[in-house]
Amino acid sequence: MTSHATTSHAFATTGDHCPFMPVFGPPQVMFVRGAGTELWDDSGRRYLDFLCGLAVTSLGHSHPAVTAAICEQAGTLMHVSNLFANPVATETARLVDEVVGAAAGAGGQVFFCNSGAEANETALKLARKFGGRGRHVVVSALGSFHGRTRATLAATGQPAKHEPFQPMPDGFRNVAWDDIDALANAVDPTVSAVIIEAVQGEGGVNPASVEYFQGIRALCDERGLLMIVDEVQTGFARTGRWFGFEHYGVQPDVVTLAKGLGNGFPIGACWARREVAAVFEPGDHGSTYSGTAIATAAARAVITEMRRIDAPLLARERGARLRAGLEAIPAVLDVRGLGLLLAAELGPGVDAKAVYTELLARGLVTNAVTPTAIRLAPPITVTEAEIDEAVALIAEVLA
Ligand code: PLP
User: Fold this and answer.
1) For residues 250 and 209, what is the distance between their CA atoms, to the nearest angstrom?
2) How many degrees, rounded to 5, is the angle at CA 353 between CA 115 and CA 15?
3) What is the mean pLDDT of the chain?
4) Contacts by 161-167 with C-beta closer than 8 Å and gap 24+?
5) Residue 294 phi/psi, 5° resolution?
6) Running DSSP on this structure, what letter comes out for residue 378?
7) Fewest CB atoms within 10 A around its CB: which of 117, 196, 278, 279?
């Protein structure tokens, strides 16, 4: 393998010439091409992508079926407003309802949008309308991540991210993660919903315990609350089931989706049980780009391909191989997560950022999800040989 860039920035991120707002750290590599699990930078060096653009390109880069669907749709019809129907969005909404509904045990309806944050905004507005005036509070967990818009940031249980933007919008309570008593204590008559991840992705790849997830469902049933499950990172086969909540034998009322749904083409979706979705009336919500033909063509191709290859089974099998490989590395203290959403815990005293930088220098893309853990989220189509290559690189760096 050729040597790779370590600290050579793709471009300056400060000063007059940077075209981007300074909200991201300095990028270390300029990627120009991708195929499957592989990426190439602007000097022609090859990398293995075990991050997938933060759990987005689950079918791998430039998947031929998704690329063909986008190209064909671009030459047929890209967009009409929501004053009119288009056949692709209609078919894709039915497909999403089929897949989510089968897991959630209910028929539902779908609102398409462009991102995970927008999917969660939709769910939060739905919860407000469902609860009615005076019953507008949504409870979420500390360590969660639900997006960067003001409402989804308030739902995100990370006080440091709130700080620069105080005061936060009201109507949100963040309580201890995986603690059903803390959640129950936060519920009063002003609460309409709980929003929760099955595995906290950005929070460090922390799977919920079965008792916690089932406890939330029971609490929601008892108090008449909506259970909103944020499947933006865990959804569409990443955890080895179509949706993370399926690991818990729990059926939510509202499910939010994005990332893997478009395999890189921006699309999000909020699904709700039919009787919950029915609280929305014309004019309550919308987006210029809701259900645009081009984005839904990408999503339709993703779902069709994931069904064809049995993506959940593949994620379980490949995930088991990756987990076993990581567990065999002496410096890895613990491996957590589900399917192909994993974190290798390196323990105190190890700087995960330095490990990430060294892995990147050797051609493996990961990320430091906490100060001491590396997140691994390769494509579901990752080969066994690629898994073995990545594990060998990690072992080499940690040695
Ligand atoms: N929810 C979860 C669980 C996420 O992991 C993310 C992004 O990482 C979001 C919501 C926000 O999605 P987006 O960045 O597409 O707005």
Assistant:
1) 12
2) 70
3) 95
4) none
5) -65, -45
6) -
7) 278
pLDDT at residue 273 in the model: 98
* 16 CA distance to ligand 1 middle (Å): 30
Q: Which protein residues touch ligand 1 with a CB less than 6 Å away? A: 54, 115-117, 120, 145-147, 197, 201-202, 230, 232-233, 258
* Candidate of 145, 206, 228 to mutate for ligand 1, largest count of ligand atoms within 8 Å of Cβ: 145
CB 22 within 8 A of CB 16: no
Interatomic CA distance for residues 99 and 299, integer angstroms: 12
DSSP 322-376: HHHHHHTSTT--EEEEETTEEEEE--TT--HHHHHHHHHHTTEE-EEEETTEEEE
Residue 386, token pair as written in the block: 């690629």
Asked if 105 and 265 touch (Cβ cutoff 8 Å), the reply is no
Mutual orientation of helices 384-398 and 352-361 as an angle, nearest 10°? 120
Distance 386 CA to ligand 1 centre (A): 27
**Ligand 1: distance of its center to the CA of 233 in Å?**
7
Thinking of the domain 67-309, which architecture would CATH place it in? 3-Layer(aba) Sandwich (3.40)
Rg of the chain over all Cα atoms, to the nearest angstrom: 21
User: CA-to-CA distance for 205 and 188, rounded, in angstroms?
Assistant: 29
Residues of the chain with pLDDT under 70: 1-16
Give one word for 308, left, alpha or beta, with left for phi > 0 and alpha for psi -120 to 50. Answer: alpha
In whole angstroms, give the CA distance from residue 188 to residue 259: 33
